[in-house]
Write a structure and sequence with these properties.
Glucose Permease (Domain IIA); alpha+beta; 11 strands; single chain; elongated; two-stranded antiparallel ribbon
Length: about 230
Protein backbone atom coordinates (compact mmCIF):
# COMPACT_ATOMS: atom_id res chain seq x y z
CA UNK A 1 0.00 0.00 0.00
CA UNK A 2 1.29 3.43 -0.96
CA UNK A 3 0.63 6.34 1.40
CA UNK A 4 0.85 10.05 0.72
CA UNK A 5 2.55 12.21 3.35
CA UNK A 6 -0.17 13.52 5.70
CA UNK A 7 1.94 16.65 6.11
CA UNK A 8 2.89 19.20 3.42
CA UNK A 9 6.33 20.08 2.10
CA UNK A 10 8.75 21.29 3.32
CA UNK A 11 7.87 19.73 6.70
CA UNK A 12 9.77 16.52 7.45
CA UNK A 13 10.07 13.85 10.14
CA UNK A 14 12.06 15.01 13.15
CA UNK A 15 15.45 13.31 13.18
CA UNK A 16 15.13 12.66 16.92
CA UNK A 17 11.63 11.20 16.66
CA UNK A 18 11.63 8.38 14.10
CA UNK A 19 9.81 5.08 14.47
CA UNK A 20 11.47 2.64 16.87
CA UNK A 21 13.64 2.95 19.93
CA UNK A 22 14.74 6.46 20.88
CA UNK A 23 15.85 8.53 23.88
CA UNK A 24 13.60 11.45 24.80
CA UNK A 25 14.25 13.71 27.80
CA UNK A 26 16.81 11.21 29.06
CA UNK A 27 14.41 8.25 28.91
CA UNK A 28 14.62 5.38 26.45
CA UNK A 29 11.38 4.10 24.99
CA UNK A 30 9.75 2.67 21.89
CA UNK A 31 8.18 5.29 19.62
CA UNK A 32 5.24 3.79 17.70
CA UNK A 33 5.07 6.51 15.08
CA UNK A 34 6.92 9.44 13.54
CA UNK A 35 6.77 13.08 14.64
CA UNK A 36 6.66 16.10 12.33
CA UNK A 37 7.07 19.42 14.12
CA UNK A 38 5.18 22.64 13.38
CA UNK A 39 1.67 23.83 12.61
CA UNK A 40 0.33 22.71 9.25
CA UNK A 41 -2.75 21.12 7.66
CA UNK A 42 -2.87 17.36 8.26
CA UNK A 43 -4.40 15.40 5.39
CA UNK A 44 -5.62 11.85 4.79
CA UNK A 45 -2.76 9.58 3.74
CA UNK A 46 -4.86 7.11 1.70
CA UNK A 47 -8.49 6.36 0.84
CA UNK A 48 -10.42 4.87 3.71
CA UNK A 49 -13.10 5.24 6.37
CA UNK A 50 -12.91 7.27 9.59
CA UNK A 51 -12.66 4.61 12.28
CA UNK A 52 -12.33 6.66 15.47
CA UNK A 53 -12.39 10.26 16.66
CA UNK A 54 -11.16 10.80 20.19
CA UNK A 55 -9.79 13.16 22.79
CA UNK A 56 -7.31 12.63 25.61
CA UNK A 57 -6.01 15.48 27.74
CA UNK A 58 -3.09 13.39 29.00
CA UNK A 59 -2.54 11.31 25.87
CA UNK A 60 -2.86 12.03 22.17
CA UNK A 61 -5.03 15.12 22.40
CA UNK A 62 -7.30 15.23 19.36
CA UNK A 63 -6.92 11.83 17.72
CA UNK A 64 -8.28 10.58 14.38
CA UNK A 65 -7.96 6.98 13.13
CA UNK A 66 -8.60 6.19 9.46
CA UNK A 67 -9.07 2.59 8.33
CA UNK A 68 -7.47 1.81 4.96
CA UNK A 69 -8.29 -1.90 5.11
CA UNK A 70 -5.05 -3.74 5.79
CA UNK A 71 -3.67 -0.82 7.81
CA UNK A 72 -5.00 2.01 9.94
CA UNK A 73 -3.56 5.56 10.12
CA UNK A 74 -3.52 7.24 13.53
CA UNK A 75 -3.14 11.03 13.73
CA UNK A 76 -2.37 12.60 17.13
CA UNK A 77 -2.25 16.07 18.74
CA UNK A 78 -4.56 18.00 16.39
CA UNK A 79 -5.00 21.66 17.27
CA UNK A 80 -8.79 21.23 17.28
CA UNK A 81 -11.46 18.60 16.80
CA UNK A 82 -11.65 17.29 13.25
CA UNK A 83 -14.51 18.18 10.95
CA UNK A 84 -14.70 14.55 9.82
CA UNK A 85 -17.35 12.17 11.16
CA UNK A 86 -16.95 8.59 12.32
CA UNK A 87 -17.87 6.24 9.48
CA UNK A 88 -17.29 8.88 6.82
CA UNK A 89 -15.51 7.79 3.65
CA UNK A 90 -12.43 9.86 2.84
CA UNK A 91 -9.93 10.03 0.00
CA UNK A 92 -6.24 10.87 -0.15
CA UNK A 93 -5.62 14.55 0.56
CA UNK A 94 -8.87 15.26 2.43
CA UNK A 95 -8.29 17.62 5.40
CA UNK A 96 -8.14 16.12 8.90
CA UNK A 97 -7.23 19.16 11.04
CA UNK A 98 -4.28 21.41 11.85
CA UNK A 99 -1.37 19.89 13.75
CA UNK A 100 -1.24 21.21 17.29
CA UNK A 101 -0.09 20.88 20.85
CA UNK A 102 -2.99 19.08 22.52
CA UNK A 103 -2.68 16.17 24.93
CA UNK A 104 0.71 15.03 26.19
CA UNK A 105 2.74 17.16 23.81
CA UNK A 106 5.72 19.47 24.18
CA UNK A 107 5.13 21.60 21.10
CA UNK A 108 2.98 21.78 18.00
CA UNK A 109 3.46 18.66 15.93
CA UNK A 110 1.81 15.67 14.28
CA UNK A 111 2.43 12.21 15.67
CA UNK A 112 1.56 9.77 12.89
CA UNK A 113 1.26 6.01 13.30
CA UNK A 114 0.51 3.17 10.92
CA UNK A 115 -1.21 0.29 12.70
CA UNK A 116 -1.96 -3.18 11.43
CA UNK A 117 -5.48 -4.33 10.55
CA UNK A 118 -7.94 -3.44 13.30
CA UNK A 119 -5.95 -0.45 14.55
CA UNK A 120 -5.12 -1.74 18.04
CA UNK A 121 -2.77 0.50 20.01
CA UNK A 122 0.83 -0.71 19.89
CA UNK A 123 0.30 -3.00 16.89
CA UNK A 124 2.30 -0.75 14.58
CA UNK A 125 4.72 -0.88 11.66
CA UNK A 126 7.25 1.65 10.43
CA UNK A 127 5.24 3.99 8.16
CA UNK A 128 8.22 5.38 6.22
CA UNK A 129 8.49 2.58 3.62
CA UNK A 130 4.80 3.08 2.86
CA UNK A 131 5.17 6.85 2.63
CA UNK A 132 8.11 6.85 0.24
CA UNK A 133 6.96 3.83 -1.76
CA UNK A 134 10.28 1.97 -1.54
CA UNK A 135 8.64 -1.32 -0.56
CA UNK A 136 5.11 -2.66 -0.41
CA UNK A 137 5.63 -3.53 3.25
CA UNK A 138 8.48 -3.42 5.76
CA UNK A 139 10.93 -6.28 5.36
CA UNK A 140 11.78 -6.66 9.03
CA UNK A 141 10.27 -5.59 12.31
CA UNK A 142 11.85 -2.50 13.85
CA UNK A 143 12.29 -3.87 17.37
CA UNK A 144 15.88 -2.89 18.20
CA UNK A 145 16.98 -6.53 18.37
CA UNK A 146 19.90 -7.68 16.27
CA UNK A 147 18.61 -11.12 15.30
CA UNK A 148 18.99 -13.40 12.31
CA UNK A 149 16.31 -11.62 10.25
CA UNK A 150 18.15 -8.31 10.58
CA UNK A 151 21.50 -9.88 9.72
CA UNK A 152 19.97 -11.67 6.73
CA UNK A 153 18.52 -8.47 5.32
CA UNK A 154 21.84 -6.74 5.97
CA UNK A 155 23.57 -9.47 3.98
CA UNK A 156 20.98 -9.08 1.21
CA UNK A 157 21.55 -5.31 1.06
CA UNK A 158 25.34 -5.74 1.04
CA UNK A 159 25.11 -8.36 -1.72
CA UNK A 160 23.02 -5.98 -3.84
CA UNK A 161 25.87 -3.47 -3.56
CA UNK A 162 28.49 -6.15 -4.37
CA UNK A 163 30.00 -5.83 -0.90
CA UNK A 164 29.16 -9.34 0.30
CA UNK A 165 29.51 -12.65 -1.55
CA UNK A 166 28.51 -15.19 1.07
CA UNK A 167 25.26 -17.00 1.86
CA UNK A 168 22.13 -15.16 2.99
CA UNK A 169 21.88 -17.17 6.19
CA UNK A 170 21.59 -14.45 8.86
CA UNK A 171 24.70 -15.81 10.57
CA UNK A 172 27.34 -13.05 10.62
CA UNK A 173 31.02 -13.86 10.30
CA UNK A 174 34.20 -12.36 8.83
CA UNK A 175 32.75 -12.14 5.29
CA UNK A 176 29.63 -10.33 6.51
CA UNK A 177 31.67 -8.07 8.77
CA UNK A 178 34.06 -7.17 5.95
CA UNK A 179 31.13 -6.25 3.71
CA UNK A 180 29.64 -4.11 6.46
CA UNK A 181 33.01 -2.43 6.98
CA UNK A 182 33.23 -1.57 3.28
CA UNK A 183 29.73 -0.11 3.43
CA UNK A 184 30.62 2.02 6.47
CA UNK A 185 34.05 3.07 5.21
CA UNK A 186 36.00 1.14 7.85
CA UNK A 187 39.05 -1.07 7.43
CA UNK A 188 37.68 -4.36 5.95
CA UNK A 189 39.54 -6.75 8.26
CA UNK A 190 36.49 -8.91 9.03
CA UNK A 191 36.65 -8.18 12.75
CA UNK A 192 33.58 -6.64 14.38
CA UNK A 193 35.34 -4.31 16.81
CA UNK A 194 34.49 -0.92 18.31
CA UNK A 195 35.95 1.03 15.37
CA UNK A 196 33.62 -0.80 12.99
CA UNK A 197 30.63 -0.29 15.27
CA UNK A 198 31.39 3.44 15.47
CA UNK A 199 31.79 3.71 11.69
CA UNK A 200 28.40 2.07 11.15
CA UNK A 201 26.81 4.38 13.71
CA UNK A 202 28.23 7.43 11.96
CA UNK A 203 26.87 6.15 8.65
CA UNK A 204 23.45 5.71 10.26
CA UNK A 205 23.55 9.14 11.88
CA UNK A 206 23.30 7.97 15.49
CA UNK A 207 25.63 8.52 18.45
CA UNK A 208 28.96 6.85 17.65
CA UNK A 209 29.80 5.40 21.07
CA UNK A 210 30.65 1.94 19.77
CA UNK A 211 27.76 0.35 21.67
CA UNK A 212 25.01 -1.20 19.58
CA UNK A 213 21.92 -0.86 21.72
CA UNK A 214 18.29 -0.72 20.67
CA UNK A 215 18.56 2.81 19.27
CA UNK A 216 21.41 1.86 16.92
CA UNK A 217 19.76 -1.38 15.85
CA UNK A 218 16.42 0.38 15.27
CA UNK A 219 18.19 2.90 13.02
CA UNK A 220 19.83 0.02 11.18
CA UNK A 221 16.50 -1.76 10.71
CA UNK A 222 14.83 1.41 9.46
CA UNK A 223 17.60 1.94 6.91
CA UNK A 224 17.13 -1.61 5.65
CA UNK A 225 13.36 -1.17 5.36
CA UNK A 226 13.49 2.14 3.50
CA UNK A 227 16.36 0.98 1.27
CA UNK A 228 18.74 3.73 2.43
CA UNK A 229 21.22 1.12 3.71
Amino acid sequence: MKLSNPWPAPFTINARSPYGWRTLNGKRGFHHGVDVGGTFPVTVAADGVVKHIGWSRTGGGHVVLIDHGEYVSANYHGAHRTGLKKGERVVTGDPVYLSGNTGRSFGAHLHYELRKRGGAWGNTVDPVPFLNGTVAAPVIKVDGRLGRNTWREMQRALKAQHLFHGRLDGRPGPITYAGLQRWAGAEPDGVMGPLTRKAVQRKLGVKDDGVWGRITVSALQRSLNDKSF
